[in-house]
Amino acid sequence: MVDAEPYAFASEPRAVPGSRQKYRYGDDGLNIMADPRVVRGNTYSGGFRGATPGSAAIAMSQTGPASIASAPRAKRKLHGVTRPKGSIFEYEVPARQSAAVDLSAYLVEQTAPPPTANCSTQTDAFAPLPAPEPYIPAKTGVDLGTQIIAEDGLFDFDSETAPLLEVLVAKTVEQALTELQHAAELDNINAQMRDFQRRCAEEAASVKEQEEAIKARAAAKADALDKRKTGAERRRDQAEQLALATSEWRVMRENEAHEAYLASLVDPVAEEVKATFIPYVVNGVVAQCDTMASSDEVLDAAMAEALAKGEAASAEKCGEMREAKAAAEELERRRKRKGNITLSVAGAALGLPPVEAEEGEEGPDPNVVAIGPMAIGGLETLTEVESRIRDWLAANREGAEWPGGLLSAALGVDLGPDDVLLDAQLPENGQIIVNSLALKSDAEEAAPEAAEEEA
């Protein structure tokens, strides 16, 4: 049997002819949401499984069209070839809901508020209104005049004024009667008021007397009750005391009889206990008490000795602490001290050549070097101060050399290199003057000795 040759192309590969372009020119990209091959929804649900054309084709390729056509409806549903009732792509996009935005700031003209200012003023008070003019009624009628003489008999004074006089007298008498009646009524009212007040006072006095009587009866009743209670308690106590005395007498008689009976009996064990055991116990207790007393005396002596040693040690420790505290306070006081010194040193003492002063020139001596003022610390030593002086001279006076021990010689005090400068007796104004070469020579002689002492 001839081996079959492997499969090979019979012709060179070539593009499939057609009107479709090979590339999508001008397309921004594939929209996967518009691709019908994309399954929408849950791929695990039975309703969408195989609902797409691609899935149906796959099912047909696997089972074959004949088997699918001949299969019953339930089997086709099981294979997932059922046609969906509606397209899964028929999805309506919900309408866009925009949030309400206040555009009044852009729709209403914005005007700058006009400038305003507050001011105040005080007007004068109102002038008083003028007094109203007297009312004068309007004149009516016509003014006419006539003249009547006494002989005409037109006016009789007595007959004309009699009615007026009667009215005035009647009114006056009526008013007087009314006032008299009013005064009499007031007197009656006052009399009734006084009678009412008198009766009220009598009633109040009667009520008070009744209250006092009731209180007196209640107090007398309470006193009588207390007396009866006291008498009853006294009689009860007497009865109890009598019963107690009787019981006590009876018990004593019974005890005497019992003791007499016991005395008539003889117990050999009790006699032996009294004669032998009790003396032995008493002697042992006495010996133990003596031993405990001796132990207490020894313990008291040891404790007294220990307390004395402790007090001595405590006193010694307190003394050392007080001395240390005093030393620390003294050191702190010395450290807080501050001083200022000013040195006026002859140039010759510092190795400077002499300078001749010009004639007529006034001022400080050019051959004297003023150093300072310099602040001195509380614990600053002589060596540290001289080192600062040398630094000052190196910075301010070129060629000047400060010999060791010159400051001690100028002060006239024998100070060592480690001695504190403020411990020496400095001048009150802090002015130190070095104007002699002898001090320099003394300082030069003392410098080797100080170096030897340091070595």
Description:
This protein has helices at residues 53-63, 65-70, 73-79, 104-107, 157-264, 268-336, 382-396, 406-411, 437-454; strands spanning 339-346, 368-376, 431-434. A 3-stranded mixed β-sheet has the order 2-1-3, covered by helices on one side. Helix content is 54%, strand content 5%. It is mostly helical and 455 residues long. Residues 48-72 and 435-455 have low confidence and may be disordered.
Descriptors for this entry?
455 residues; mainly alpha; three-stranded mixed β-sheet; 9 helices; 3 strands; 54% helix; disordered C terminus
Task: Note the main sheet.
Answer: 3 strands, mixed
Going across the biggest sheet, name each strand in turn: 2-1-3
- Head-to-tail CA distance between termini: 123 Å
Q: What is the multimeric organization of the chains shown?
A: single chain
Radius of gyration: 72 Å
How many beta-strand elements?
3
Separate helix tally:
9
Tell me, briefly, the overall form: extended
Strand content: under 5%
The H-and-E topology, N to C, reads as HHHHHHEEHHEH
Helix fraction by DSSP (H/I, runs of at least 4): 40-55%
Uncertain regions spanning at least 5 consecutive residues: 48-72, 435-455
* Classification by helices and strands: mainly alpha
Mean pLDDT: 76
